[in-house]
Amino acid sequence: MWHDPAVEFLNFVLIFTAGWLVLRRPERERLAFGLLVTSSLLMAALFLIGARGSILPGLNY
Amino acid sequence: MASRNTIYTPLTLAVLGLVVGPIGIAVFVLGFGLGDSPCVLCWAQRTGMVLIALTGLFVLRFGPRPRYIGLAVLLAGFGLYMGLRHSSLHLWRDVGQGFSAEILGAHTYTWSMFIYWASVVMMGVLLLMLKDGEAAREARRLRPLERLTLWLFLAAAAGNAVQAFASTGPPPYMGQGDPVRFSFNPANWVWSLEEWTPSPVSLRGRWAIEKPDVALATIDPSASPLANVPVLPAARRAALSLPLDGPITDLAYDATSDRFLVTTEKGIYITDGSFGRVLRHTVVDTGFSVDLARFAAGAFLAGDTVMAVSENKSFVILRENDAADAAANYRYFLASFDRFDEVSRSRLTTVRAKMMYVMSAAFDPATESVYTVTVPNARMKRLVVSRFDRRDMTLSEEFTPALAPGSGLAFKSEKGSLDSFYVSGAAFAGGKLYVVSAAFGTLLTIDPQARTVVAAHAIPGLERPVGLAIKGSEAFIVDAAGGLTIVPLAP
Do B154 and A46 touch (CB under 8 A)? Predict the structure, then answer.
């Protein structure tokens, strides 16, 4: 059973927060970059969850 | 070398183009304006673009630190994969067909491949312009255009968050495979957990089809889905003793010249009418040009023209020529270069039979038609007869035959079907398509006009046949080792 609460909405909240830190709080670069990496991993996970029925492109190899 | 300012201006414009272009258009025009709603895969593709833009903003603010470059390359690489993986669901469909919105003649998911590719190119250009050791230690002071770009980015991210909340919901809801039209009215919001449902993970999905092999067929006649199949005893049996380059894969007969065609995985052999000797042969370079894989079937198209069909429905047509140019034919053949000319080599395209291999082919000279019949696999169990017009080798008809009324044939159960028959040989005679099944050792007679099976006969002792030819009133059935079973055709 899946319990990971990862969703697109949450991901854009993370992205917005990271962008806000870059603009208004540049001294928090480490936190902003951490959010960027987290969001990237979340994005990849969400795609792979949606594509798990055929991880490779469904083409005639 | 370029100065740092030279780098930041094109980077700013690139990020601005990404934010205002695909990201902004996707959410504000397509989403809020036209009601387009991304599917779960589209969301990830769009998010990846937003993240690349954000990485560019990190560079604008903090300089081109290696970890930013590394992450941007990873994001673009994964984005290219996402674009290909998602587009693969639709690329093979007919012209104009796709999923959801179309922009400038191409659907959105295919555009993402171009955008990620352009991102990679842009990164390469910027890296070429970069001086050694230019990573900044302190945060840069943003110029007005850079500040505007960041504000626009935040607006686009906020817009996406709003659309994502309405379309996919708060945690743990997530995007859907087939989302509904976007609306600001909460009454129209659909929040789904469908993508969280546990399901098998596959590498190639439905395209993972095992190669055909008669050894996979159930030979026990009592396991046949047909009830009370009459028995057709062999009139005689023989063993072929021919100098072939490998196991036999099919058989065909030409009445006008009284000759048999025998195929192997790569070889084409023409024998006399009693299998006494090989009159001519060649071994085809199956890996050259169109991949012919393994020949699984053969047929005479005319007295001097033969066709070999591979299990993957690719084919080659050869014409006999005693004066063939051996030097010119080097590219086509691996042996006996001066006995045939290659007329054509191409592929048969099917619709219903698309995800299944074939092990049989037959030619009807009356209608100038080539027939193939599918073999079932673990994912697709269906007996599909495909007919191709000889003149252009294009699919002209496909059907799944039913049992003919009045034939006396019946299934053992209401759910019975012909789908488990493993057709490994076919021949055309007297307006009927005869096929032999490695499963259940059965000879089926198909009326292609009525699209029905009009007769079925179990042949005792028939084990894993690979080919069928009809000579006169007899069916010649062969196995891979050359074992020949000859049965009289039922009246």
Answer: no
Percent of chain B at pLDDT exceeding 90: 76
Q: What is the pLDDT of residues B266-303, one digit of tens each?
A: 999 999 999 999 999 999 999 888 999 999 999 999 99
Q: Which domains does chain B have, with CATH numbers?
A: 4-193 (no CATH), 214-488 (2.130.10)
Chain pair A-B, CB pairs under 8 angstroms: 177
Looking at chain A, how many residues does it have?
A: 61
- Please report the residues numbered 88 through 147 in chain B whose beta carbons come closer than 8 angstroms to any beta carbon of chain A: 88-89, 91-92, 139, 142, 147
**Which residue of chain A has the CA closest to B169?**
A9
Task: Give the pLDDT confidence score for residue B5 in this predicted structure.
Answer: 61
CB-facing half-sphere around the CA of B415: CA atoms within 13 A: 0
Cβ distance of A50 and B150 shorter than 8 Å: no
CB contact under 8 A, A44 and B204: no
Per-residue pLDDT, B187? 83
Q: Among residues B3, B2, B1, B7, which one has the least CA distance to residue B146?
A: B7
| SS3 of residue B46 by DSSP | helix
Quote the tokens at residue B117. 């590719």
Whether B15 contacts B60, CB under 8 Å: yes
Put simply, whether B489 touches A (Cβ < 8 Å) is no
Per-residue tokens: B433: 């398509």
* Alpha-carbon distance B111 to nearest alpha carbon in chain A (angstroms): 16
Chain A: give the shortest CA distance to residue B128, in Å. 24
Q: Which residues in chain A are closer than 8 Å to B200, comparing Cβ atoms? A: 53
Q: What is the identity of the amino acid at B471?
A: K
pTM of the model: 0.85
**Could you say which of B48, B50, B202 has the minimum Cβ distance to residue A55?**
B202
**Which of the four pLDDT bands, split at 50, 70 and 90, describes residue A1?**
very low
Segment B36-84, tens digit of pLDDT: 888 889 999 999 999 999 999 999 999 999 899 999 999 999 999 999 9
Beta strands in B28-104 (DSSP E): 102-103
The C-alpha atoms of residue B192 and residue B175 are separated, in whole angstroms, by 7
Which residues face B423 on adjacent strands? B437
CB-count burial class (<10 Å; 0-12, 13-18, 19+) for A1? exposed
DSSP assignment letter at B188: G
Instruction: Provide the pairing of β-strand B236-239 with B483-488.
Output: antiparallel
Q: Give yes or no for A51 touching B (CB within 8 A).
A: yes
CA distances B138 to B61, B64, B135, B141, B428, Å, are 9, 11, 9, 9, 81
Nearest CB to B43 within list A8, A18, A32: A8
Q: Please judge whether A7 and B173 are an interchain contact, meaning their C-beta atoms are less than 8 angstroms apart.
A: yes
